[in-house]
Amino acid sequence: MRPVYMVAGGVSKFAKARPTVTFQQMVAEAFDAALAQVPALTPEQIDGSVASYFSDHFQRQLMAGIMVQDYLGLCPKPSKRVEGGGATGGLCFQTAWEAVASGRMEVCVAYGFETMSRVNTWKGNEFIALASDVSFDFPLGGFYTGYYAMMVVRHMHEFGTTVEQLARVSVKNHRNACHNPYAQKRLRLTIEDVRAAPMVAYPLTLLDVCVMSDGAAACILASEEMAAKLTDAPVRITGVGTGTDTMRMADRPHGEVLLLPHESPADYKGLKYPGVHSFRAGRTAAIQAYKMAGVTNPPRELDFVELHDAYTSSEIQTYEDLGLCRYGEGGSFVESGKADLGGLVPVNPSGGLLACGHPVGATGLMQAVFAFWQLQGRIGTHFGDSTLQVPKARRGLIHSHAGTGTYITVTIMEAV
Amino acid sequence: MVDPQPASEQSPERRHPPRLEETEEGAVLFNVPFPSDLSQLKGMSPIIAKWPYQINYIHSYGQDSPFFAGLANKKLLGTRCSRCGTAYGTPRLRCMGCGGECDWFELPRRGRVHTWTTCYFSGEAYLDETPFHLILVEWENVATLFLSRLVGCESADISIGMQVEARFRRNSKFNVADVYFVRAPKQT
Ligand SMILES: [Zn+2]
């Protein structure tokens, strides 16, 4: 495999509803924003694309990907759709990486979108819950927040995680978003505000849960030779990992913790793993990505992380899967400020899904764009405010997550 | 204008010009404003139409069908691998550990709460049923769990590890909600 670089990225502003445009035009906004960063790129130099969208129900359009492809003027170049629930964006990014790494393409565009405003919130929740087993899960409530609530209740039981620690994630991510003009929700909250919000599924309140959005994002990936021609600040993709787990949360058996290089079996004596409190797919993806990128001590060697915080609880669970702290220490990790801007490893400096929104097919690509700008040192240029720029950011991690931890991608990106 | 030809000499097309039938259904917008200057069209508000979307889907439970037949007969069925012996609390006919074929067995009516929540919202189809409790049920020597509803108690009464007992709907709907759990009555 040959080296692959990200050379440009763009995001449409995520909003609760964008009825003034179709999904094709939303992607065009993101694509045009990316193209503006690489003026030397000619249409002929683009070899193909990968499309990312989660739900045929939200778009109410089969083969929506090709409608974007033709709107962008990319026909008759090769393209395909990838799909894997909430991780669709992360999988799309990695598929574009594969196209360039394999030598099939010199330049590949990854674009993603979702139009979730076309149905009401509760019908939307039903659509999302169709991504749980329709025979054994869906008829019990059709509600993903309920599944995540059960996971965190078990996490609290195993490790003593508190609801205030969950709220701390919401406070942090909404606060970060105040400096991100692309974010959907920019709020200054207190822990009390989060706990006083309407309960959705115990212990998760409305402010522990991300919102539905309309939005799009696009990334342009290139070979070393093309990257050198296109930009003075390419970002190299140095690690790629993907994991899977059973569709049904009920099917997670108990075994041994999958260890990272800086952990030992003694750390986890007696811990039944993964159960429903941890994501084996996330740990699996992290192990692969760290190995490929040569990361042996993640909290020391990562400058920031953009992870899939669809719920405050899943952010805490994910700290542990990624080895930012040990299993069981996720609550104290956020409580002690280690995930804050300026902390040990800033997590979701952009505001994450909680504040930026979660137009599913765009989300994983949005993370890549924000990470790309961080590593270029150009957050100030794109956000018009450099508060969120992580100083001397050299290496970042993006994490995309589906279902109850069903598909998870981890990708490591580095400044060059 | 007066038609110069008498009606009797007109062609059928002229008497009944072909046109698509006008119907009463579906029209939602009348007198749509339209500028005479077409360059103004880019500033137009979007037209937003409501499209009803309903289907009847013929779902087959396939090889899992005996589970639902079991519920109709007040039996909660799991499966056990015929090769490695792993027992599954939610049935699967193929063992995820070794790939062996699994056989059906009846799970104990009593299990314990592995984890739980109370949902105050839900997917649209179940909003009328909120708030409701979800639990994952665990059994001794069974490798995986079972997702179900817990009824007849308050959130404050639920705890991890508490004993629960399966109950069955009298009128089976042939979905997984035909079984639910209650707090296990004290054994005498
Ligand atoms: Zn087996």
Walk me through what this model shows:
The complex is a heterodimer of chains A (416) and B (188). Chain A is α+β, with helices and mostly antiparallel strands and 416 residues long. Chain A has a domain at 4-120: Peroxisomal Thiolase, Chain A, domain 1 (3-Layer(aba) Sandwich), CATH 3.40.47.10. Chain A has helices at 23-35, 56-59, 64-71, 88-101, 121-129, 144-159, 163-177, 191-196, 224-230, 280-293, 298-301, 312-321, 330-335, 352-356, 360-376, 379-383, and strands spanning 4-11, 48-52, 79-82, 107-115, 199-201, 204-205, 214-223, 235-244, 254-255, 273-274, 304-306, 395-401, 407-415. In chain A, a hairpin with a 5-residue loop joins strand 12 and strand 13 (407-415). Chain B has 188 residues and is mainly β. Chain B has a domain at 62-183. Chain B has a five-stranded antiparallel sheet with strand order 6-5-4-7-8, with no helix packed on it. The mean pLDDT of chain B is 92. At the A-B interface, helix 5, helix 6 and strand 5 of A face strand 4, strand 5 and strand 6 of B. The structure holds zinc ion (ZN). Residues 81, 83-84, 86, 95, 97-98, 100 of chain B line the site of zinc ion.
Name the shape of chain B in a single word: elongated
Mean pLDDT value of chain A = 97
**Share in β-strands of chain B:** 15-25%
Strand line-up in the sheet with most strands of chain B: 6-5-4-7-8
SSE order of chain B, as H and E?
Answer: HHEEEEEEEE
Structural class category of chain A: alpha+beta
Query: What class, by secondary structure content of chain B?
Result: mainly beta
Shape by Cα distribution of chain A: globular
Assembly status: heterodimer
* CATH C-level name of one domain in chain A: Alpha Beta
Tell me the CATH architecture of one domain in chain A.
3-Layer(aba) Sandwich
Ions, cofactors and other ligands present here are:
zinc ion
Number of H/I helices of chain A: 16
Give the strand tally of chain A.
Answer: 13
As a percent range, the share of helical residues of chain A equals: 25-40%
Largest interface (CB within 8 Å) is between:
A-B, 44 and 46 residues
Largest sheet: number of strands, sense, barrel closure of chain B: 5 strands, antiparallel
The biggest beta sheet of chain A reads: 9 strands, mixed
User: Compute the gyration radius of chain B: what is it?
Assistant: 31 Å
